[in-house]
Amino acid sequence: MAYLVLDQLTKRFGNWTAVDNVSLTVEKGELISLLGPSGCGKTTTLQMIAGFLDADGGRVMLDGQDLLAKKPNERGLGIVFQSYALFPHMTAAENVAFGLEMRKIARADRDRMVADALKLVGLEQYGDRHPRRMSGGQQQRVALARALVIKPSLLLLDEPLSNLDAKMREEMQIELRRIQRTVGTTMILVTHDQSEAMALSDRVVVMNKGRIQQVATPQEAYDHPANAFVANFLGRTNLLPGMVGSGAAGTVITVADSVWPVAQPMAAGPGALAVRPEKIGFVDAGGPGGGLSGTVLARVFQGTQWLFEIETAAGRLMVIRQHDGSPLPAERERVMVGWRAEDMAVMPADPEATSLSREAA
Amino acid sequence: MAYLVLDQLTKRFGNWTAVDNVSLTVEKGELISLLGPSGCGKTTTLQMIAGFLDADGGRVMLDGQDLLAKKPNERGLGIVFQSYALFPHMTAAENVAFGLEMRKIARADRDRMVADALKLVGLEQYGDRHPRRMSGGQQQRVALARALVIKPSLLLLDEPLSNLDAKMREEMQIELRRIQRTVGTTMILVTHDQSEAMALSDRVVVMNKGRIQQVATPQEAYDHPANAFVANFLGRTNLLPGMVGSGAAGTVITVADSVWPVAQPMAAGPGALAVRPEKIGFVDAGGPGGGLSGTVLARVFQGTQWLFEIETAAGRLMVIRQHDGSPLPAERERVMVGWRAEDMAVMPADPEATSLSREAA
Amino acid sequence: MSMAASTDTQVQASAAPSAAAPPPRRPRRRHWAPYLLSAPGLALFAVLLLVPLAMTFLLSLNSFSFYGGIENVWQLGNYTDIIADSYFHEVFLRTFRIAAVVTLLCAVFGAPEAYILRRMKSPWRGLCLLIVLGPLLISVVSRTLGWALLFGSTGLVNQGLMALGLIATPIEFMYTETGVIIALTHVLVPFMVLSVWASLQRLDPQVENAALSLGAGPLTVMRRVVLPQIVPGILSGSIIVFALAASAFATPAIIGGRRLKVAATLAYDEFLNTLNWPLGATVAVLLLIANVVIIVGCNRLVERRYKQVFE
Amino acid sequence: MNRNGPIALIFHVLFLGFLLAPILIVCAVAFTSQGYLSLPTEGLSLRWFRAIGDNPEFIRAFKDSLLLGAVSSTLAILVAVPAALAIARHQFFGREAIQALFLSPLMVPHIVLGIAFLRFFTMIGLGGTFAGLVLSHVIIILPFALRLILAASTGMDRAVENAAASLGASSWTCFRRVTLPLILPGVASGWVLAFINSFDEVTMTVFIASPETTTLPVRLFLYIQDNIDPLVAAVSAVLIFLTVAAMLVLDRVYGLERLLVGKGRD
Amino acid sequence: QEKTLYVAAYGGSFEQTMRKDIIPAFEKANGVKVEYVAGNSTDNLAKLQAQRGNQQIDVVILDDGPMYQAVALNFCADLEKAPVYDQLYDLAKMPSGKAINFGAVGTGILYNKAYFDENKIPAPTSWKDIEDPRFKKKLAIPPINNSYGLHALVMMARLNGGGETNIEPGFKEFKDKINPNVLAYEPSPGKMTELFQSNQAVIAVWGSGRAKALADTGFPATFVYPKEGGIVLGSAACQVAGSKNAPEAQKFIQHMLGVEAQTALAVSAGFGPVNKTVELPAEKQVGIPYGPEQVGKLLVVDWDTINKNREVWNKRWTREIER
Ligand SMILES: Nc1ncnc2c1ncn2[C@@H]1O[C@H](COP(=O)(O)OP(=O)(O)OP(=O)(O)O)[C@@H](O)[C@H]1O
Ligand SMILES: Nc1ncnc2c1ncn2[C@@H]1O[C@H](COP(=O)(O)OP(=O)(O)OP(=O)(O)O)[C@@H](O)[C@H]1O
Ligand SMILES: [Mg+2]
Ligand SMILES: [Mg+2]
Predict the structure, then answer these.
(1) Is the ipTM of this complex over 0.85?
(2) Residue whose CA lies nearest to ligand 2 atom number 27
(3) Over the stretch D93-119, which tens digit does the pLDDT of each residue have?
(4) Which domains are seen in chain D, by residue range?
(5) What's the pTM value of the predicted model, to 2 decimals?
(6) What residue spans carry the Polar residues bias annotation (chain C) (predicted)?
């Protein structure tokens, strides 16, 4: 049986529905990420699981037991709060030790475990400092250590790494993964960082306006988004308007001056073609694949990769190329772009799709 | 003359030096990012510029005037605080309006500007809500709107986007960039997100332990890091131990079973070879370039790209490949990797280098 | 050139000016603000409190005789009298014993009550807060009247208990120390509730949630997480309660009667009944000094112990 | 959601019962038909309420008390707020001494203060004036206001004030628009406490009140010196009623919650 | 401009009487305004002391004990001669000639008649009856800084072979026999009333005037003079030395000794008249020391001796009795 079950969980603030009929099952040892635009109800969902907000409807079952009937302090969960919620009157070490004390761990063990946890988050020298005297990232790491040290069987993480630099974040991600694997901790992670969600999660849950949009493995959700919102929210997508019609090779879609075969049967009429920027490459004029011609409007360095904005007859395109030293076009250069037919998705025209995520904010 | 000059700015907390002799000049209209591990003194530096912490030494000149002599409220800066610091007793709209009221903007204008600012951050419907009733990301956006609406000539941003999802963050980045270009605002941005820093900044300032390590354009700092700390901090780097010796083609470095030419003259002896993961590709066995053979230990999906960990005779390597649909090796597959000689850097063996960033935390 | 080598040169380049001259020291900003802020209060107190108190102190050095009245001689006779007399010791001891017990009771009952109040829902909370203020809203005279009616040997409580057969003879309440303590706790506990209330406002509820999530029961949350953070409030309340209890006059006079004398009633007697003002002034000065020493001492102790919370 | 458990509620009810018991008794006694203190066992009577009407001095004294309380507690707040901020915010030389000074009126028996003020006011010619009464009350109620404001302002998030300053708010504006609203619950409860104390003060006021301006408690005190009768209870009951009414009006007009709890909080 | 005369005197029913029956007539006759400073004897005496050298009060009314002290402390000016003084009983005059008793009450025993009847206890007849163990914790006595208490102490001394000059037996009696019965040494008349009304005290040493006020409320309390004799307690008035309105102050005192004022005081406040020419109807005489023979039966105490020793007695009292 599933370890954690959310069954039609609902929360209203006044007449504002923050979480709307959310149902989800999580297996033991799984790491699930909640993704969604700011204000979509992620924190609210966690707070209900933790018992700090009363649900207006629905159930939460943990290991076969009704969780909502238990008091928050008996649920035995670990939580990292978005706002850290450190005890301001305790030092970092005391903050971390608190949960252990509650579990009546002997003094010596406790001290060792606290030291280990602080070391884990790179704060071994900061045990004596009070939260008010720590930097934002340091506070966040104390919050993380405090939740990890009690080795809970279910860990709720609300943006636990948002204030850490890339290096530290990566280390923490690896650490979380290791704990999940070795200890078997079930984790629910809220993060705004998609690559973090992608890298860590067994499955991602994409939410919008309090509702679940898709539950799937990261790659599945990325490559086969359930709807336009997910497609748009997870990574960037180029949506190009076109006309679906019948060609010699079966159904085709015509975008500007290029023609692409469509795998699935589709009615003729206006349609849209979705292709991710990293799937688009620069091709030689007249090479294989349709190929659209355009002009480089801007190129932006992003560390491991470059982001290009390209003006074509079908509209603006975003293209991502790896910063691997290979020659790349300059701004204002004329280029030809193309992609493989299997990397694109064709869907009926949806005037709303592009504005969905914006509106959801 | 430079617009903003920090001259040997120093701040001590007790006998802890949080900011150590920081000197920096910023031109008018420039966008500078402060990067560095958690706790390296970024927030402290901003707080001194803003006047909330008294500097223990050094000067800050803005437009030729001594800033430290002025009271905080006369400095005319805009600030987004890491902890938001919203006024809890005011609604979102009142928070945003506050700065305008201080500037005695007429009622009608003010209302319009507030509405515009809230719209800008996607909170047009949330004007009446108090901060306690908003989600983390919503609060952060209110903080951003509050700082932007007064159109300050110098804007200090302390992790302004850390709680926003990718989509929203990108929009905000574009917005910041637009404001910087059109209004000519000078900005100092603290961010833990390197790609954000890379994408937005005219120059980046890398700090560690309260000191500046390098000031350069993003690409320069990335491709030509001033020291091992910067190399390690900005993006990932593979450091492989090897032996420098003389070969037929001049100086070479031997790493495991592969041999690479070294451009600059170097003494023979133990050395190290640094190469960024995205510069490494999978090559055919026996193809051009040295090529190391190894086994794929793990592959992690990161959205636009895949991260590989590869076990080789020279140690573990990280490799990044774009998720562009091209075939990629599976876990436990045997592969051969290689890179172009110009993408690698060779340096004398430095036992400390790999642990530097860790220790700095 | 190696990376490591380039490190030094680059850093040096950026730090070049600093190598030449030591960083300019900033003169520490003079902090007049606190003095300016307390100036109005200080001025008011200097004129209106220190002068009368000084007059009182001078008075305590005078001597008195029944027929001669107050004589303008300067001597410490009153002080030595009090210090040598076990009667005064007893009174002072009783005063501080009562004050300490009352403070303790107020803290033990008032602080939890404030916490409970904070967790109540909207209309109830305001209402209950009003009730808590209740005892303050009626004159001390009527209040103690109420107590006498309730707790006198023929009062409601004793009659009720006797009717139920729980006690055979009435419980002594009037003219006992217990009575004084209960009545003082009753009047003073609102001060504790209010001042704890004021400091509870700053608490972040998520912090309590964090403690719950770590397995702390409600009592532990209160003791380990809430309590330390509201120490300033409890301290404020305790200071008010202790000071008021130690210098209380009406309640000990009415409930305690003349046989259960405390410092204030003693001073009252000297001032009004025997007209021996110098002696009364001496009692007052000693009470003031003892109070200040105890209160400032505790204040400092608590502020040091809970340094973090007071920043 | 944090709610009070059953034990907490039982405690709460007992606590309120303890606070209310003597008050309710006094109110009940006010309705007696007897000429002496007794519970109204044989029928309710309003005779003692009517008797208040026969004592116009009570009503005059009541007005004087209200005025005195309002003026002196407002003055006390005006002085206490800056002082509390100085003490809560700054570490400076003499901080403890200043704090002890401001609290000292709490620690002196009021009879002593009464005589000290009487001597002093007579000396400087303020004897028997309303101003003298106000000033002496400001002194004795200031500690209450100060301590409560102090409790509210220690540990307040400075970042919020910094934010206001960065947006161009002068110290005064910052105080008015940000600090004050945030410590308002403390200030409001401070004012209420100060008012109540001024309104209830007898021991000291007996000495400085003049025949022209006497406070209600002094009137009551002198009255019961001679004879206690249910009139005192009736006056108390009326006072309680008026207070409750005033609070209800305040609640309607401004919101008690908002005043004592603060805006935008839960 | 009208002159204002400040008169400091007791509050409560006495104040009502003064305001209603005595002051208006005086104001009309003399064209001055009278401000009444209410306060008990000790409060007012303290005010005199606090304002020494800058007196705001013109006439002060105190119990005779405190008045002796006020005179001793030079707060009072000499009384001017006036015809009304010739109409007074001798006991009205104070030796110094600076103050005058304008009314008299007697110290005796007050008891709760209903309680006594219910428990079949015979009415008290002797000072010694307050030692009856049946009254354990049911007896109330004012302390000795109050005249009633002082009278009780002196009386106990006298009954045991001592007196003003040998107070020792009095202290001994209080300590051994009376103390166990005492619920409270209660100086405040109001509080004393309350003790009776709430049935906490059923017997007390008190004054006739107070007893009358209590009985007037309908409370079943009865006052008796013990067989050994009651003690007279005067209320005295004097012109404050340094008064700015000395002539009016003197006139006011004389006014209080006049027939109308004396009658009003007797009827409404229970003060035995000191003016021989006052005649009261029989039903108004109840509970008031009235007429030469009644007043003559009352004992007087020797204030000079008492005041000389008062400080010492007070000290002993607080340390030995009130502990
Ligand atoms: N009030 C204080 N007292 C003592 N030490 C402090 C205080 N404030 C900050 N520090 C220390 O100074 C260092 C610099 O802090 P700062 O807040 O500037 O870091 P930061 O670079 O902003 O880090 P982050 O990215 O985690 O926010 C930290 O190590 C912190 O612990
Ligand atoms: N106490 C409250 N009263 C009213 N509305 C609330 C309250 N708390 C949250 N909300 C609203 O409910 C919605 C969901 O909030 P929640 O905190 O769950 O968002 P979130 O998904 O965590 O967003 P973020 O990524 O910005 O933290 C938001 O629109 C928020 O404004
Ligand atoms: Mg959230
Ligand atoms: Mg920071």
Answers:
(1) no
(2) B136
(3) 888 888 888 888 888 888 788 888 888
(4) 53-260 (1.10.3720.10)
(5) 0.81
(6) 1-12
